[in-house]
Structure formats: C-alpha cells, structure tokens
C-alpha cells in the first residue's frame, strides 16, 4: 500500500510499487505484459486489489479515505466496496484522516464481499466513530421501501426485470466526457448502463454542482487531519527514532520525522500543518469544511430516502422526485503506466497536491484521478466500484461506481449482485 494510505498509484511505498496483474488481455495472460507496459495496481490499497485480482484470495480488506478501495479495484478489474462511514469498526486501522477513514472490502464476486460485510458490520465500542445501534436500526426503517422495491412487491415480470422501479441518477457534473481520458472508458460504461435499463432500472440525469470542488476540499481536510493524527510519530512515544547526537535537542524531532516518513507523507504533513495554522485556517480549513457540507447536502437532496443520520429525524417517507442510487465512472482512465507514476515522474517534491500552479501533468493527474471517488467519501456514503468491462482502446479494466444513501449498503450490494447474475447469463 501507499505509506499511511496517501496515494492513488501505489508508488509511495518504501517497498516499491504494486504491479497490476489484470493485464490488457485477462489475468491468466498478464505475464505477456512487457516492462514498459506495466501498469500500477492503484492506491492506496493496491496490494489488496492485486491479491484479489490475481486469485490469491477471495476477499481482502482495504482502507478507503478518499477512494483507496474503489480506485485500485477499478484498475484491477474487481469489486471494491467502501461501506457507509461508521458501519465497519476502524479499531486496529492506522489513522490517516479520521473523519473520512473507512475499512473497505474487495472481492471478485459480490456474494463473498457481501458475506464479509455482513459479518463485520456491527457497533464496536472500541471505535469512537462506530455507528450506534439506533442509527443502524433507523437505516433499516428508512430503506425499507427500497428493499421492498428490490424484493419485487410490484408483481409480475420481476424475475425478468429485477431492477424494476429502481431509479438511478447519473450526475453530469462528474460524468463530463471531456474529463475522461478517452471514449474507450465510456464504452464499457455505456454497456453497463444498457444492462441496468434492460433489468428495469430507470436512469435520469442529476446535478452535483459542488462535486468538482471536492478534490481541493478533500486534500486540505485529509492533510490537516493527517498532520494531527501523525503528530504521535515523534520517535519518543511512537515510531522510528533518529540516532541522538550529543548536544542536539530540537533537531532530533525534525530528523526523526524526516527519516521516518516518505516524501509524499512529509509533503502532506507540511500542507496540513499549514492549513491549520492561524493565518491560513479561515482560507483553507474552514472553506474546505464548507465545501464538504455543500457536497453532503447536494447528495442528500438527490436521494429518494432521507438520511437516517439527519437530526431531527425526518419522516421515513420517500421523496417523489428522488433517485435510489447514483452511478458514475470509478476513474477517469484505465490504470496508468507505472513509468508515468514513479515518484520522480509524479513530482513528489513539487508544489501542493491541488495547487493550480502545479503544472506537471503526471503530478496533477495522480490527484485528479480521485475526483470521482471523493463526493461519497466527503459525505460518508456507501460506494461500490463494479467492473464494467475492458477499454476498447487499451484492453485494461474499467470500473463503474454505484453510490447509495447512508446505510443503504446492502441495497447497493443487492443491485450489483443482480447485474452480476444478468451479465453471467449474457456471457453464456
Ligand atoms: N488518493 C487519496 C489520497 O491520497 C485517497 C487515499 C485513501 O483513500 N487512503 O489521499
């Protein structure tokens, strides 16, 4: 994985990058890929994704602060699930940005993923942000109508059209064709959309005007939280300690942290510490919190079910014009070439992640890849990256992400399972 979960390409690791085993021609033939054609597994949980994609295990745990489960899953052609914030205990997970950190799950098929999720989803007093039992019960009540729709109370034809009555919104703001690397990424996604429609789902265009701002907001908030979370690695209580030189006091901390953290982590810690400083706080941290709130409200407004976390609790009644899920591409491209993502190429020593002054293309694209996964992270919503097929251009996997209202995790997985079943029949 990328050090402390900071990265999107898995090149910020002391142990070297994780290579993508998917290959342009299928996993069993991935050895045919030459060194120049090697692609990254994606980050930060690229090791988990590569292990699942290569068949070393059926299910792997991952972490997801801003897309680290979904992006590698998309690049490696497997499922990557970020559950609603608070449903899976974070006890034992090394903190990156606590208000965003979640435990993710990866698998090649929906059923093992669902079983792993169900067995791990419970209140845990050891995680102070674990969703309490009453929030889980409230989510069950709020999503009852959706569950009934999925259970096919609507009668005849349910077998042939298992998504009848389900509404899916496609947000134009984070589906701009100009942002995607090439139309080849869109082709498998269009096929996926056609399958959804053939199963009875209705698609509509929705707006998320603040979503593009999520990228800058996320990098300010995540870096700020990381700077306070990682303050404990001072070599006194925790972590690596540099050798002490005679007469040296203050420099020991600096040398300890310079030696112990990689370049990308140091860059984020400096950025985060700056964002929290008295002079910068109002312009960076506070603004980023406002953007986060806007994105949360815009997303919440789109859904047919109200948020189970809203206080005071709104009536569980469904909104007539709302959608049940949101769907968008998981990434703007297929897995990038390893050569274009090496720390040298990604300009680790350059300016801040989201700085407009950062003109080096490889450097910026490493962060821009997160754009699509960030709204669900900032709003704490469940999001599943599903393999949509292979790019018609380069043959590498393309993923599509389904996002639900908070607590609609089982329903997101249910939709994926039905699509998976339909596609298995199509391929027979
Ligand atoms: N790529 C994002 C980052 O570097 C997300 C990482 C994550 O989800 N852990 O912060």
TrEMBL record:
Region described as Disordered: 340-362
Classification via Pfam families: Amidase
Domain Amidase: 1-413
GO biological process: glutaminyl-tRNAGln biosynthesis via transamidation; mitochondrial translation
GO cellular component: glutamyl-tRNA(Gln) amidotransferase complex; mitochondrion
Xref: SUPFAM superfamilies: Amidase signature (AS) enzymes
Domain of life of the source: Eukaryota
Protein name: Amidase domain-containing protein
Species the sequence originates in: Rhodotorula graminis (strain WP1)
């Amino acid at each position: 994985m990328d050090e402390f979960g900071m990265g999107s390409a898995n090149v910020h690791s002391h142990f070297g990058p994780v290579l993508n085993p998917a290959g342009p021609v299928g996993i069993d033939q991935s050895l045919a890929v030459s060194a120049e054609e090697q692609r990254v597994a994606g980050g930060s949980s690229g090791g988990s994704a590569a292990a699942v994609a290569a068949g070393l295990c059926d299910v792997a745990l991952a972490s997801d602060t801003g897309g680290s489960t979904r992006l590698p899953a998309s690049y490696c052609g497997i499922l990557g699930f970020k559950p609603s914030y608070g449903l899976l205990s974070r006890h034992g997970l090394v903190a990156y940005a606590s208000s965003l950190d979640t435990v993710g799950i990866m698998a090649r098929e929906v059923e093992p993923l669902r079983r792993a999720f169900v067995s791990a989803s419970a209140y845990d007093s050891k995680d102070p942000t674990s969703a309490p039992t009453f929030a889980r019960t409230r989510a069950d009540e709020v999503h009852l109508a959706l569950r009934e729709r999925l259970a096919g109370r609507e009668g005849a034809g349910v077998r042939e059209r298992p998504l009848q009555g389900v509404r899916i919104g496609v947000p134009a703001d984070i589906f701009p064709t100009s942002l995607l690397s090439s139309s080849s990424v869109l082709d498998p996604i269009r096929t996926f959309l056609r399958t959804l429609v053939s199963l009875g789902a209705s698609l509509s265009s929705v707006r998320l005007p603040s979503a593009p701002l999520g990228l800058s907001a996320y990098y300010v908030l995540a870096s700020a939280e990381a700077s306070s979370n990682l303050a404990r690695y001072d070599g006194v209580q925790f972590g690596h300690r540099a050798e002490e030189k005679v007469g040296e006091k203050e420099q020991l901390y600096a040398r300890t942290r310079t030696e112990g953290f990689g370049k990308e982590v140091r860059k984020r810690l400096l950025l985060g510490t700056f964002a929290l400083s008295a002079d910068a706080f109002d312009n960076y941290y506070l603004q980023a919190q406002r953007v986060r709130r806007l994105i949360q409200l815009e997303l919440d407004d789109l859904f047919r079910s109200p948020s189970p976390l809203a206080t005071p609790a709104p009536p569980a009644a469904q909104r007539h014009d709302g959608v049940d899920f949101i769907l968008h591409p998981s990434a703007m491209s297929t897995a990038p070439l390893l050569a274009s993502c090496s720390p040298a190429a990604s300009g680790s020593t350059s300016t801040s992640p989201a700085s407009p002054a950062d003109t080096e293309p490889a450097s910026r694209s490493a962060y821009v890849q997160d754009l699509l996964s960030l709204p669900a992270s900032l709003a704490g919503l469940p999001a599943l990256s599903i393999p949509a097929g292979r790019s018609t251009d380069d043959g590498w996997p393309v993923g599509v992400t389904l996002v639900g209202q908070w607590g609609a995790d089982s329903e997101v997985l249910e939709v994926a399972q039905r699509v998976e079943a339909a596609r298995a029949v199509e391929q027979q």
